[in-house]
Amino acid sequence: MDKVTGMMDSIKAKTERAMNGEKTETPETEYVALHMKSIDDLETFFKKHKTYTNKIIDSFATIIEQLGNLAELDRTRLSTLPQNQKAKQAISVNFLLFSQGSFQVLKDELVRGYTCEVDAILCEIGDVKGTFQKNQRKTMDNLETLVTMKYQLGNLVEKRNRVMQDFQYKALNSFNNTVSMYFNGNGHLIEAAEEIEPTESEIQNIHLRGVSYVGKTVGEILDSEKRKHYELPKAIEEIIKIVRDNYLEREGVFRTAASLKEVDELYHRLSVSKLADFSCETLVSTLKRFVRELPGMLFCNSLAKDMLTTYRSRGTDEEKISALRKLFSGKWVPEEKIVLFKAICLLCSDISSRSDVNLMNNKNLSVCWTPTMFAVGNDDLSSYLEMMTFIIQEARPIFNDLKIGAPKHEYVMAPSVPYVPMSVPIPSPNSPRSCGSGDSPSSAKEDHSVFGGAREKVPTRDPMQRYQVKPQRPTTLVGNAFLLKRKVPKEPTNESFLLGEVN
């Protein structure tokens, strides 16, 4: 039995030696065992390198595709934009197409420099690894061959890896040069890049809801814009400035019709529009519509008659100018209305000074503005045209240095009733007459102010007075007294008011 077992073991050993060869350790097998792991690690590294590189290449392919899609989308939108925005959008389309082409060149360089070199390295590593595997169990190649292959593989990896890095630098440098050349040839793009911060600041001031100009009085608009009532609404002020700076010589200004669609669009977004982008005709037509559609018009029928009466009551031009100055400087209407009227009249005066070029003289401008400002019938229209022509012609003498409403800087006591001292001093021969029992305190020639001076007589207000002055803005509370700026003007009587004798 023991002999049989021994024979079986001997046969098994011979069979294994025949199938696998003898595993006798040799210098070749030892060298293979020593360097096999480093070859495996090198192969793993470059396989991962290829995976990451392919992902980068795929990302560039996606970027290139989406840049093309974005350029096509922007090109489609061009047809829907206003004419003044098409040029900027066309520049954007061209830039996207340029970027798409530049990224395509960069991708091709990376493919040539990375993918091809990595594939070559992996192929060479595979050859060396296959040779080493054959010599793991049985020496197939001599030691010289193995050492040479390992050394040469190291040289190839080093050289190809350097080529990969250099291609990376070359590709990005080429991309940078191409972009730089493009921007150098399109200087406006550099200027556009420098406008980012100012544009971002402007964005902070853009609100979805603007100040409403439609159906609002001038005073309500000024309050919404936190402006004083001796100022103009922002949009109206800007329109007048644009016309004065650029269009005084435009033929038919205020008479040439504009696109109704554009005027309607601008009118309903006056407070948020970039007015410089609109044509002269659109701007002046919108200004006229704004004035025409003010609640109650700029001057209602009764106010218009007051102005006409004042104008007719004087004979010479100098007298008319003086009377109109007095009318406009008093508290006849809310001061913001006179401020707007003054601004338009002065603009018309500047336009008429260039009538030899723009063909718009005082009368033509009066025809444009009279029906817009005054609620008058056709029967009286000729009289108002004559008055408006005169006001435009004499706008400088009438409005220059004109203080509209109460002055803004000096303050005096302004009680709602005339001031009566708590203790009346003993009258002397030089003192003013005291009020009788049947007299109003205001009928005295003067009384004694708390400041020690004589006060002006304040006439009593006639309750039946037709043109009763109503305060337009609340007075200011300072300490325990209400203050108004400078002196309280005399209340006009019916007769003096209609004659234009307003202090």
TrEMBL record:
Residues 428-472 are annotated as: Disordered. Coiled coil: none annotated. It holds the Pfam family RhoGAP. CDD domains: RhoGAP. The lineage of its organism: Eukaryota, Amoebozoa, Evosea, Archamoebae, Mastigamoebida. GO terms for molecular function: GTPase activator activity. Residues 444-464 have a biased composition (Basic and acidic residues). Residues 431-443 have a biased composition (Polar residues). Residues 216-399 form the Rho-GAP domain. InterPro entries: Rho_GTPase_activation_prot, RhoGAP_dom. This is Rho-GAP domain-containing protein.
